[in-house]
Amino acid sequence: MEFQCDICSKTFSRQSDLKRHKFTIHGSSFFSCNTCDKQFNRKDNFVEHCRKCVITCKYCDANFKLQKDVNEHVNLIHTDKKFVCTKCEKKFAAKTNMQKHQQKCTQSTSLVIRSPQPGPSSRPDMDERTFRCRRCTARFANRRQLYLHGMQHHYQSGGGALQARP
């Protein structure tokens, strides 16, 4: 005995196959992939699809299960980082991320090194605390002078970001 689908006229040798056919082919979708939005009306097909379904980064071959992870990856790896922490020089693509970081950042400016043994130096006006530049031999009595020196002599502005001069 053959069982025929009343929608598309396809025939089956068993009623259970016809029932499965109607549910799979003509039924509404109940399962939706969170990665690609493809829909399934059979759980086994949905589960199998979800195990393999990934979103590939359009800039490299990295794969992700969720779009939010792709977005985070692109921001971290492939986006120009124009915003620089004034404390540690870490770069950020988004100004808000840099501002959040700066609130927690405990490092001093990388141009600043406190002399390991404060004390007498070759200049009497720099006795107590001497700050020296990491990029040249200049020394300063306070951190602010050193910072201004670094900004003037070792950094250039370009494209809204500070960049170390070659």
Automatic annotation (TrEMBL):
Residues 3-26, 31-51, 55-83, 83-108 form the C2H2-type domain. It is found in: Nucleus. The keyword Metal-binding applies. InterPro entries: Znf_C2H2_sf, Znf_C2H2_type. Keywords: Metal-binding, Nucleus, Repeat, Zinc, Zinc-finger. It comes from the Eukaryota. One of its GO terms (molecular function) is DNA-binding transcription factor activity, RNA polymerase II-specific. GO terms for cellular component: nucleus. Its main location: nucleus. PROSITE patterns: ZINC_FINGER_C2H2_1 (PS00028), ZINC_FINGER_C2H2_2 (PS50157). SUPFAM superfamilies: beta-beta-alpha zinc fingers. The keyword Electron transport does not apply. PANTHER family: FI01424P (PTHR23226:SF416), ZINC FINGER AND SCAN DOMAIN-CONTAINING (PTHR23226). This is KRAB.
